[in-house]
Amino acid sequence: MxxxxxxxxxxxxxxxxxxxxxxxxxxxxxxxVGILPGFGPPAATxxxxxxxxxxxxVPGIIMMAAIFYGSAYxxxxxxxxxxxxxxxxxxxxxxxxxxxxxxGRGGQAxxxxxxxxxxxxxxxTVGMVFAAPLATLALSFGPREYFGLTVFGLSIVVGxxxxxxxxxxxxxxxxxxxxxxxxxxxxxxxxxxxxxxxxYDGIDLVAxxxxxxxxxxxxxxxxxxxxxxRITRVGRIAPTRSDWRRSAGPMARGSVIGFLTxxxxxxxxxxxxxxxxxxxxxxxxxxxxxxTGAVEGVAGPETANNALNISTMIPMxxxxxxxxxxxxxxxxxxxxxxxxxxxxxxxxxxxxxxxxIASLFVSNLILLVMNVPLIRVWLVVLRIxxxxxxxxxxxxxxxxAYAVELAxxxxxxxxxxxxxxxxxxxxxxxxxxxxxxxxxxxLLEENLVRSLLLADGDATTFTRSPLALVFLIxxxxxxxxxxxxKVLKGVRRRQARQLVEHENAKP
Amino acid sequence: MSLHTGSDRxxxxxxxxxxxxxxxxxxxxxxxxxxxxxxxxxxxxAALLITSRSYDVRVDNLPGPGLYPRAIGWAIxxxxxxxxxxxxxxxxxxxxxTEPAPTRDALVRGLLALVALTGFAFALIPLGYPVVAFxxxxxxxxxxxxxxxxxxxxxxxxxxLSFLLVTTGLGIQLPLGLLESSLR
Lengths: 507, 184
What we know:
Helix content of chain B: 55-70%
Largest interface: A-B, 81 and 86 residues
Number of helices of chain B: 6
Radius of gyration of chain A: 24 Å
Order of helices and strands of chain A: HHHHHHHHHEEHHHHHHHHHHHHH
Largest sheet of chain A: 2 strands, antiparallel
Structural class of chain A: mainly alpha
Shape of chain B: flat
Strand order of the largest sheet of chain A: 1-2
Largest sheet of chain B: 2 strands, antiparallel
Distance between the termini of chain A: 79 Å
Distance between the termini of chain B: 43 Å
Radius of gyration of chain B: 24 Å
Structural class of chain B: mainly alpha
Number of strands of chain B: 2
Strand order of the largest sheet of chain B: 1-2
Order of helices and strands of chain B: HEEHHHHH
Strand content of chain B: under 5%
Helix content of chain A: over 70%
Oligomer: heterodimer
Number of helices of chain A: 22
């Protein structure tokens, strides 16, 4: 199906009342999530995973995707008006957004940010529409290539997920071990089930994800001291003609920066926003205004941020490789509903694939419309006391864990996963690799064993597929090159120091 | 997410080690936690290897159901040993952006919240959803330092609204327990 016909098919689906309603609900929830401190998109999407069972996969996934990028819009409001970025990616926006707000131009900064986000989202969605047919290339992949690709995607996420690669790998291995509970995907042998038939399908993904990401985040929230800010005045809403003129270039450049950064699995969300900020500061004719209220400093990062949020979805849609925790949860939603994210989605369920892509256009428009005009409504959310938020969200998680299978044991899984998630966070073991391997584990095993079965158990089969070999070598390089460079740098520095000491010691 | 980018706000101290003694406590705990974490993970990897021996690695000279778990077991064992060595070499020290120290008070409150959730799981069927949901949420509000009054109001509102939403809106039957006769 060509992109335009696919998009039309998708739009037809999105404009069905149920899907439209859940897009609006998702956008509103995303705004709330972005505004609320201590409650991020992973926790929110995990919390709403059970709801998709009731409303169905298409509206459910549309809603979850809207929460994901809606949170960026919400995070901007607190970044500009309170100097408290709701999301890490909004930190760059606060650098100039807050000074603008203090000058009484908060409303104008928010409009520029909202329009920038819309432009970035629009450009990235168009990019996604035209990138989607690339999924058909991946259809020619065999189990060896898929195995190589999955290992490569995983290595990038581990490599970029934090400063401790070993800990990232430990996290990935833990996720893989969780995913082996249940029936062996090739021969159907029950493993690590303790004879309990309810574990044949594996550990309940909903309770597990809610615990690891949602409950652990709420527990962390218990120890954080509340940040209270003085909300600055919104002031005049409409930006001046000069504001628009100064923002056009940053928006265009931010769209490209955000789109390209988002394609990289495991990308740090803040990289594109700060990259755009730095670029605009270098190019601007008003360099001295940066840090004290330059409108370019709001337009560029915000545009880049939202373009990144959309293009982050591309690796998952085209290759079936989620590039962030939220994407892994979204992928979990696909799998729970029996859908195969990646190229198979475009072949087997093109209506669903295109509906979700089309929903990005519509949800971006909804967010633009509901952002600034309802600013005072969103600020009310900030007044919800944390105890009430903590108790309600935790209560909803317990209810969600139970409601999926009407099994109280899933609440215990939620609690155990919450404890593990909390400990892992404290030990700085990144959660993204765990989420990825928990979701991708069965696929990884299936492709590994299939490859070996086809080669009569010969492990060198991977070296006979050039593509698989490239992926595997690249995976090793991604993991080993940065630490090796670091060691090399240390050695050089030591040598230089010794040389200086030697020179100084000369009479 | 509470991130700080400016200074002229009315706010409490940022999270993280604020005093010298707290810093030392967490620095020491961080080392102990990393050592313990690595050792527990080594134990987990070993246990995985031992238990996976009951599954065949090869069936008719082809990969069996034990191959993958065995490979993961070895991977965990290797990586966790590496983690242990790195910890012993002082790789994981307290730094400015290290995850902030949990206060003992927050740990106790978190633990009690988990006990409350576990109690919710066990009491759900005998007592019924409306009662346990009210109890859970009320306790959680108090644990998060909310007032008793707001806890009671939130507990009642949550139990009633979530029950109605799930049973009427989503069509899922929740256990009624003690209220079986009065609500059916």
